[in-house]
Design goal:
Strand content: 35-45%
Radius of gyration: 26 Å
Number of strands: 35
Strand order of the largest sheet: 27-28-29-30-35-34-33-32
Distance between the termini: 43 Å
């Protein structure tokens, strides 16, 4: 996909689980492991294949194929790439497989839990499970289960899991998958139902499950905060369109199947495959009020996949190349698509900026504090607008200036800088005159050309140029005491490029 206008087929994976993975194909980005369990629309024996895509993702190398799961249909992968989960959908069976050594995977837990799709929290200690409920085998309706998987993640002997909560909703059909996301530090789940309530067990064929956003801040009491639905997903409109090509079957038609997010942290865009409705794109900048911003319906073709009805059959999980506003997905009858969303409707992301006014303390600029790790920052703050391996940068509400955090090699904040004109201390802020700075801090110490310290032991630094303050920064005394190290962190923060020290 280096040239999205000319995709190149680089390889074909021929192990049985790759020839029939159903919905289980799963890539772990951290380790570059590509895994699948043999599956079909109900379930298959749990044969698992693992490939290494880390060295060359165009030509993954087979590591193993072994019967290490009970049954297969869909899957989950822990973020650290050590645990692969296989689910069966039609039976109460989840298998947790240790893939620390992908050449010798082995089962570490077998759960008697009904599960369709599942995803895991970034630490691996929680599983979010789409339970199809009564539409498969239980008396309980379709729901989302939050499961404590911490003992599996910690590799306890004979690990046990614990149910934390379950949640159902109106018009629940067959829950398909549950994707954890974080918005402004608050955890949510993007849950997708497939098909309609009439697919099995005599439900209403016009009750379409579609998708929803669930607040799990209190994981014992999750709650739906908004729905992602099309007009044709409403019962009356769905009934009126029942004669459309591809709409006769409750297992297809105008229903959802899979969604994907632009990023798991502060996502702005969700793309969903809505089967006969094609690809649908939503702006979720405001998670309580999502809105549709774009769609793409592929050219139709009569094929066995769509019952020779010449309708769309969009079922794949869309993925993003967000820097290019591109979405990649496949349509059953016609193949693979790379589409680009118009710049005019793509969310700008300004809602994730930091406060316009912020105090500068001895260890912080606003809520960005020294020594915090990256995960702690994401819990406190919106996602940064720009990331590098050694720095994060945020925009500031109002559009003027930015805040930067420079990190140690171990991922702790070592220096924070701001160029925002309303961030200050003692009425000194970026844009202030140097004489104002001198009156506010009478014990200034020069650290080189264009850089001064508020006092001999102060953690505050000021970049000055042409008689004005360019930026304000705070850093640990150890860093300030080492000039070369200090200059490096100022470069990481992006504030030292325009003057010489």
């Amino acid at each position: 996909m280096s040239r999205p206008t000319h995709p190149v087929h680089t390889d074909t994976l021929t192990e049985p689980p790759m020839l029939s993975p159903h919905e289980s194909l799963n890539l772990n980005p951290r380790r570059g492991l590509l895994a699948a369990v043999l599956g079909n629309p109900t379930t298959h024996p749990g044969l698992v294949s693992i490939y290494d895509a880390h060295r060359d993702c165009r030509h993954p190398k087979l590591q193993s194929t072994s019967l290490v799961a009970r049954l297969g249909h869909e899957s989950g992968f822990s973020a650290d790439g050590r645990t692969f989960y296989a689910t069966s959908t039609a039976f109460k069976a989840i298998s947790a497989i240790d893939v620390t050594d992908p050449k010798h995977p082995h089962s570490i837990w077998q759960g008697n839990i009904l599960a369709h799709g599942m995803s895991l929290r970034s630490d691996g200690n929680r599983a979010y499970i789409a339970d199809p409920g009564k539409y498969v085998s239980d008396s309980v309706g379709g729901n989302m289960l939050i499961l404590d998987t911490s003992q599996i993640q910690a590799r306890k002997p004979n690990p046990k899991t614990r149910e934390i909560s379950r949640l159902t909703w109106r018009a629940a059909s067959i829950p398909q998958n549950a994707i954890p996301i974080t918005v402004h530090g608050r955890p949510y789940i993007l849950e997708i139902d497939e098909y309609t309530a009439g697919t099995t067990r005599g439900g209403d064929k016009n009750e379409v499950g579609a998708a929803r956003i669930i607040d799990i801040h209190d994981e014992r009491k999750p709650r739906v905060v908004s729905n992602l639905r099309l007009q044709v997903n409403q019962p009356a409109h769905h009934a009126a369109a029942s004669g459309d090509p591809g709409a006769q079957s409750p297992a297809q038609g105008y229903a959802a199947h899979y969604c994907g997010v632009s990023t798991p942290v502060d996502p702005k865009v969700v793309a969903c495959s809505f089967i006969a409705s094609g690809l649908r794109v939503f702006d979720i900048s405001d998670v309580k009020h999502p809105k549709e911003i774009a769609y793409y319906v592929a050219p139709t073709r009569a094929r066995p996949e769509n019952g020779y009805n010449a309708s769309d059959f969009a079922m794949a999980k869309p993925v993003f190349a967000p820097s290019r506003r591109e979405i990649w997905y496949s349509d059953g009858p016609t193949g693979f698509y790379a589409v680009r969303v118009d710049r005019r409707v793509w969310p700008s992301g300004r809602g994730g900026c930091l406060a316009r006014r912020a105090p500068i303390g001895p260890r912080n600029i606003g809520r960005v504090r020294l020594r915090l790790r990256r995960p702690a920052l994401l819990r406190r703050l919106p996602a940064p607008r720009r990331r590098t391996t050694r720095s994060w940068r945020w925009c500031v509400k109002g559009g003027r200036g930015r805040v930067s955090a420079a990190f140690t090699r171990r991922g702790r904040v070592a220096l924070v800088a701001t160029t925002a004109p309303h961030h200050g201390n003692r009425r000194v802020h970026p844009g202030s005159r140097v004489r104002t700075l001198a009156r506010a801090y009478p014990h200034l110490r020069a650290l080189g050309r264009g850089l001064v310290r508020a006092g001999p032991r102060s953690p505050r630094l000021f970049g000055v140029r042409r008689g004005r303050v360019r930026y304000v920064a705070v850093a640990s005394r150890g860093i300030i005491g080492r000039r070369g190290t200090l200059r490096a962190y100022l470069r990481y923060a992006g504030v030292a490029a325009k003057h010489r020290h």
